[in-house]
Specification:
Four copies of one chain form a homotetramer.
Chain A: H1 2-8, H2 15-37, H3 42-78, H4 81-99
Helix pairs in contact in A: 2-3, 3-4
Chain lengths: ~100, ~100, ~100, ~100
């Protein structure tokens, strides 16, 4: 039970940093709303949308990194069908990221 | 002056819809923070990050669409160096989007 | 007729450079096949796949740039429904690029 | 030595399919050159560029999947610094893919 708890939150050591990054991304998205309200020039808004998208992408890559280094690694070390399943699941998540 | 005002906010007709979409994206990013706080499984967070990224991408494409249909089109109809500049600027924004 | 001919090949002035870039991309994809045949390490192949993808992306952005600067600009200068259709078509192509 | 050989080509079981896909991608890139030579309409070329990019992306995801399932899994099963290094290397490759 505890093993599972530890295993499934690969990002436990980076929690604070991830939340900080998400708060900044939230601020960027709120800033976008103000820009639209204020009739900011389209291109300037687009630049800010790209910045917010990149911030989320950085969070995704950090989560994935932690997931491979902990959850997938732990499952693989234990072996068996659960390990294969973890690898398949990670691959599917990577495919969604690459295609989004 | 008025012409410029009208020209530079290509998204004026979609303002309400864009803000609605940004509010939803903001909600998704706030939801992500809760998921991290609650030790939600990494893969489930990643799925939600992809959803938020896609929401921002949709906003970007809508802004760009409006920008081409109004700002760029108006500048091109007037011709001259300003038209070339608008096209170059739009191309650079598209490149940033494609590469982000 | 001639106007249409000129209009629809926005990239006419960059043709040689585009073909050169595509030939290089073709060489990269052929190089990838050799790497796979030779059992090259996965990560090194992935680096080369990213390079080939970026080469194609650069071609796409150049074509789009030329398309906006010539085909779309010409249609917009003439105005009417054809202009709107060109802008819509360009927006759809941009959306495909951003999402691919 | 043999173990290393087997370990580093995670895609060994999919070699034929990957080469087939790369040959198809090569054909698409050659087709693009013909389209440009023949003054094909920009938007139709762009559609084909997106198809070629997607074909390469599929190859990348397959290579990555095999790499995680074999090379990374084997290294993790053996443990130690080599395992950490393999995970870091895979994460960096994923980041390149997501950002390309």
């Amino acid at each position: 039970m505890m093993a599972h708890e530890t295993a499934h939150v690969g990002y436990v050591g980076d929690k604070e940093q991830i939340i900080k990054r998400l708060k900044r991304a939230e601020g960027q998205v709120r800033g976008l709303q103000r820009m639209v309200e204020d009739d900011t020039y389209c291109i300037d808004i687009l630049t800010q949308v790209s910045a917010a998208t990149k911030a989320l992408e950085t969070v995704a890559l950090q989560l994935l990194d932690d997931h491979l280094a902990h959850c997938v690694a732990d499952a693989v070390a234990q072996g068996g069908a659960a390990a294969d399943e973890k690898v398949r699941e990670a691959s599917a998540a990577i495919a969604r990221l690459v295609r989004s």
